Inverse folding.
């Protein structure tokens, strides 16, 4: 029960991704569309639309309500001097009170622009250009966000595949180090050999750690782009594909000059600069308006309760120390600057597209080379596995070949992610749809042996210590291999290097000119005679009628079974011994 509980806890610790939310590329793009980055540009577009509404309102009359109230220390008076209207009229000065100490007025005022020197028209045109520029900026930022999301998504997919491949590749150096340690204990290897083997293990572990960090960093980048919480578990789901692009460079560059959103935004800014010049020049002309008002006020000796007025109003700046001229020159310089910036932007677009296109062609060549190398190593691995099943090479040699192949697969996947990222960059750089020129194909997945043969081979020859690091708990990944102090080997079978037997002497064991071959199974070689005898006695009960021998050769005590006339008999005898590693040696006999 405790073992089952511990296994369940290890499984939960090992597979945190099981609780992660699967997300596809389309879902990531949809979440990024609602993110804060695009929201910023959407608000800028909405603000530009409101600016256009404001500029349009300037063409219509404005109606204002004005009210006032005043309190003075003395009431207003009207003094009529004597004899003002004739001799004796009035006879003397007359003082008339015209109001109270406090007074008020309420009125409605209307103003309609009639002529502004083109200022209102140009301001409306400037607002329209601002709306177009804001929409182009939003479109370009949307394509840029899409590029970033696709790049991060593809890198996350690739990082996961690369990590799995690196974990599988780690088993080879670890097994090699184990073999070297046993050989060192038997006196057939040097301490330097063990140190070099352990160095390869540490190098492989460092690669695994780097891939783990890269995988987490890719997920963190993807979370940021889709506005996910930093601790939200996500798992990108999709298939990484290899891409082929058939579009010529010239067509892509022409497409970019026509469709690129930031170039459209830059062109509207050039036109906006011209409107700024026209707005500044409107200051040289008078500003004419139609004005009207309706006023209600207290009745006095000289005022009525209601007053209507209608008139025209003109304002013209005759002298202002060259301010308007300076504004015109400033606007013209800014417009010229925008024109130069637009020309440079077009050059940058052409260069960027060419750079991405040529980079993709380089990646395409590297992809072909990586796939060819992967298939070559896969074929070589199949040959090594076949030789291992024949008993010619050791399991460690198989795992080293697997390590080389899985390392090549990791590089192959990395190239595929780079190609997809470059295509996303080209889509953003051109601003157009590249699907007519794109062809997708699945990646090549290593499979050196058919599944049935793989299971048979692993069942027959895989040692217990060769468990792939890919199935270890996450907490143990950084410690797949731990070097230990050199100790004498147990009765476990020692892997040995195969070498062809020397030909027999002339006439020895020969019938005429024919030399017959026999096979022996070597199950161990030991420095201590006691260890060799202990292994020999423990195997006598298992081997049946086949003879077991112990010989001393090259300072070692070797335990062998045989001879056997057929190689199949030798392999069956080794299986009967229950050992996982052995060496079938070819010798010459009668």
């Amino acid at each position: 029960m405790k073992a089952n509980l511990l296994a369940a806890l290890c499984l939960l610790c090992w597979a945190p991704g099981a609780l992660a939310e699967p997300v596809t590329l389309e879902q990531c793009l949809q979440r990024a569309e609602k993110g804060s980055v695009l929201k910023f540009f959407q608000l800028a577009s909405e603000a530009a639309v409101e600016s256009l509404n404001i500029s349009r309102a300037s063409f219509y009359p404005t109606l204002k309500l004005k009210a006032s109230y005043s309190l003075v220390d003395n009431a207003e008076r009207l003094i009529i001097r004597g004899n003002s209207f004739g001799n004796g009229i009035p006879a003397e000065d007359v003082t008339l009170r015209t109001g109270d100490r406090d007074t008020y007025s309420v009125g409605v005022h209307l103003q309609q622009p009639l002529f502004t020197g083109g200022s209102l028209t140009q301001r409306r045109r400037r607002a329209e250009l601002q709306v177009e520029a804001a929409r182009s900026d939003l479109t370009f930022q949307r394509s840029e966000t899409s590029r970033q999301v696709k790049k991060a998504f593809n890198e996350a997919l690739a990082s996961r595949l690369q990590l799995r491949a690196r974990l599988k590749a780690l088993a080879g150096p670890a097994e090699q180090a184990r073999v070297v340690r046993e050989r060192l204990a038997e006196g057939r290897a040097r301490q330097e050999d063990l140190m070099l083997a352990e160095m390869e293990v540490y190098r492989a572990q460092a690669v695994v750690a780097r891939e783990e960090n890269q995988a987490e960093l890719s997920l963190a980048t993807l979370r940021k782009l889709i506005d996910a919480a930093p601790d939200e578990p996500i798992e990108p789901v999709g298939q990484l594909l290899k891409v082929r692009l058939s579009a010529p460079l010239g067509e892509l560059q022409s497409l970019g000059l026509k469709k690129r959103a930031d170039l459209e935004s830059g062109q509207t800014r050039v036109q906006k600069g011209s409107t700024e010049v026209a707005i500044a020049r409107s200051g040289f002309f008078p500003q004419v308006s139609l004005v009207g008002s309706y006023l209600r006020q207290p009745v006095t000796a000289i005022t009525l309760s209601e007053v209507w007025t209608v008139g025209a109003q003109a304002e013209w700046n005759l002298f202002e120390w060259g301010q308007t001229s300076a504004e015109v020159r400033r606007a013209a310089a800014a417009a010229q600057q925008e024109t130069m910036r637009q020309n440079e932007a077009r050059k940058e677009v052409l260069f960027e597209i060419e750079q991405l296109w040529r980079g993709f062609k380089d990646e395409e060549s590297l992809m072909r080379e990586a796939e060819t190398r992967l298939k070559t190593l896969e074929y070589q691995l199949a040959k090594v596995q076949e030789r291992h099943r024949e008993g010619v090479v050791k399991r460690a040699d198989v795992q080293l070949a697997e390590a080389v192949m899985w390392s090549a697969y990791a590089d192959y996947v990395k190239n595929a992610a780079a190609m997809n990222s470059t295509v996303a960059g080209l889509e953003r750089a051109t601003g157009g749809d590249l699907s007519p020129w794109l062809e997708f194909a699945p990646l090549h997945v290593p499979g050196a042996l058919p599944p049935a043969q793989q299971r048979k081979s692993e069942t027959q020859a895989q040692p217990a210590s060769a468990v792939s690091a890919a199935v270890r708990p996450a907490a143990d990944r950084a410690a797949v291999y731990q070097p230990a102090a050199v100790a004498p080997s147990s009765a476990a079978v020692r892997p040995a290097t195969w070498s062809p037997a020397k030909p027999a002497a002339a006439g020895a064991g020969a019938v005429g000119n024919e030399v017959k071959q026999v096979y022996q199974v070597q199950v161990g070689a030991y420095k201590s005679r006691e260890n060799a005898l202990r292994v020999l006695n423990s195997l006598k009960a298992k081997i049946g009628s086949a003879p077991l021998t112990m010989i001393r050769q090259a300072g070692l005590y070797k335990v062998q079974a045989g001879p056997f006339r057929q190689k199949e008999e030798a392999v069956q005898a080794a299986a009967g011994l229950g050992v996982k590693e052995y060496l079938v040696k070819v010798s010459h006999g009668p």
Observations:
- The radius of gyration is 46 Å.
- The domain at 139-259+344-471 is CATH 1.20.1600.10 (Outer membrane efflux proteins (OEP)).
- The longest strand covers residues 102-115.
